[in-house]
Structures are given as structure tokens and as C-alpha cells.
Write a structure and sequence with these properties.
With 273 residues, the protein is α/β, with parallel strands linked by helices. The chain has 12 helices and 5 strands.
Length: 273
């Protein structure tokens, strides 16, 4: 949400994920019109691309999506109390307080009271405003927006689910999907992501649930653990927190190359082969 993008009108802000998807899709179409030679390297915008591609004048070469440490379905991803208790950060009394709050938040979600369900977390970095960085990214004298206005316009959307969109993408045989998580992430903890993934209903959901969990190695070290079916792979990245590429760059690089098929040694579409 933090960037040098700007709008002078309130209507210029997105208020839900549909508007976010349409805006990003429009930007991507403009980019590909200007630079058609770069089309195969542009990452997908998933559901919106899937929805528009059949009738679009400019076709986007959408092959799949990778979601990292993402809040996709708050209802199935709220069990912070048990997770924090299991890792020793809460005692029994604190865990029970979390459990009570989680029930309350789920009731707000069920009633569509999105603002009451929203938990406010703000991040800000001064790095992007350093003179050298500003010159490198060619933003001139544009003001850096800290995301507050964007957040306020999207506050009713944060606690809503995109689960049906992910299930629809998974049900398409032509796409591949990866959901990965840092082992040490507390913001979107791995057990919460597993709760969500195991609740997904698509053509291979039973096969995923019964698939073996395999060890994934990078340079001889255990990089994480993987479960996969035909077009879906779920990855735990060992030793990483919420920002997987920052915490474990070599493992993140290997992971994304395996997923996209960019690894020169790969002979199949399987993550592990």
C-alpha cells in the first residue's frame, strides 16, 4: 500500500479486492502494450487475469500464482492463541484470552462487521525516501504515501475472504498454484496457513490431504518441507519469517525456480523432481 502512486480524488482509491484486481490488471495491460516483448516475464494477477483473458484483446500469458505468507481466509486463519501458546509466547491464561477474542472476531466476520474484525498492523520504512533510492527509482519530487489513506479505503475488505477465487484457480487444469510460508512467521503463522489450505475444496483437495510431506534441500541443507498434487504445491520454508526472500534468499530463489520451471536441471513439472 506504500508507494509513490497518487490520486487527487477519493474515488481513486480501491475499496475491495475486486477493485484492486481491476486496477492492477489495467496497469498490466498498459505495461504489456508498451513493452510486448516482456510479456512472458510478468507475474500473474491471478483471478482477474483468469476472468478477463478469454475475451481480452491483449492476452496475458498467465500460468499460475504463488502466494507467500498471505492472509487469504481470516475465518480459518485466526488461531493465533494456540500457535503462540505452542511456541511458548503465551501462558494458559493469555491463550484463553486469545481464544475468546478469536470467537468474537469470527462473529464479526459472520455478521459482515469488517471494521470491528480488522486488526490494525502498520509498517513504515524510511529507506524508500532516501535521496539515492529516490533517484534510482525515478520518482522525482513525488511525495511518498505511507498507505494510511489506502488502508482506510480498504479497511472493510481486509477481513473478507478470497478463498473462492483461489479454489476457482485451483480447479483450472492449466494453472499451477503454490502457497508457501516461513517457518518462523508469526504475522501469518504456518499452522494458520495449513488450516486454510486444508479447508480448500477443489478437484484434488483429497489428493493433497493424503499426499506425503517430503524434505526439500538446497545445497545439501534442509530448506523446508513440501506437499504437492498435480497443480498445487504447499511449502514450508525453514528458518524464514514473514519475509521469506529477505530471510532465506537462497531458499526462496530455489523455490521459485522450481515452481516456475526456471531450474535448468528440471525434467518435470513436479516441485521435487
Amino acid at each position: 500500500m506504500m508507494s509513490f502512486s497518487f490520486t487527487t480524488k477519493d474515488a481513486g482509491y480501491a475499496t475491495n479486492e475486486s477493485a484492486v484486481g481491476e486496477g492492477l490488471y489495467s496497469a498490466l495491460l498498459q505495461f504489456l502494450t508498451l513493452f510486448p516483448e516482456l510479456r512472458k516475464y510478468v507475474p500473474a494477477l491471478s483471478y482477474t487475469i483468469h476472468k478477463h483473458n478469454p475475451s481480452a484483446d491483449v492476452k496475458i500469458n498467465f500460468k499460475g500464482m504463488a502466494i507467500g505468507d498471505g492472509l487469504c481466509d481470516p475465518v480459518t486463519m485466526l488461531d493465533y492463541g494456540d500457535f503462540l501458546y505452542d511456541v511458548g509466547l503465551l501462558d494458559e491464561v493469555q491463550r484463553d484470552l486469545f481464544r475468546k477474542k478469536q470467537v468474537e472476531i469470527r462473529s464479526y466476520i459472520a455478521k459482515g462487521l469488517w471494521q470491528k474484525a480488522f486488526i490494525d498492523m502498520n509498517f513504515f520504512g524510511k529507506y524508500i525516501n532516501e535521496a539515492e533510492v529516490r533517484r534510482a527509482i525515478h520518482v522525482g519530487k513525488l511525495a511518498f504515501n505511507d498507505g494510511k489513506a489506502v488502508e482506510q479505503h480498504l479497511i472493510n475488505d481486509v477481513m473478507q475472504s478470497v478463498k473462492p477465487w483461489i479454489e476457482e484457480i485451483l480447479n483450472q487444469t492449466q494453472y499451477r498454484v503454490m502457497i508457501y510460508n516461513g517457518q518462523l512467521d508469526i504475522i501469518i503463522a504456518y499452522p494458520l496457513t495449513r488450516n486454510f489450505v486444508e479447508s480448500l475444496k477443489w478437484r484434488d483437495s483429497d489428493a493433497y490431504l493424503s499426499a506425503p510431506r517430503r524434505i526439500w534441500k538446497v545445497d545439501g541443507d534442509v530448506a523446508g518441507y513440501v506437499k504437492e498434487t498435480r497443480n498445487f504445491v504447499e511449502v514450508l520454508v525453514r528458518g524464514a519469517g514473514h519475509m521469506v526472500p529477505y530471510d532465506q534468499p537462497a531458499r526462496a530463489y530455489d523455490m521459485i525456480n522450481r515452481f516456475t520451471g526456471a531450474d535448468a536441471g528440471k525434467t518435470s513439472s513436479s516441485f521435487m523432481d
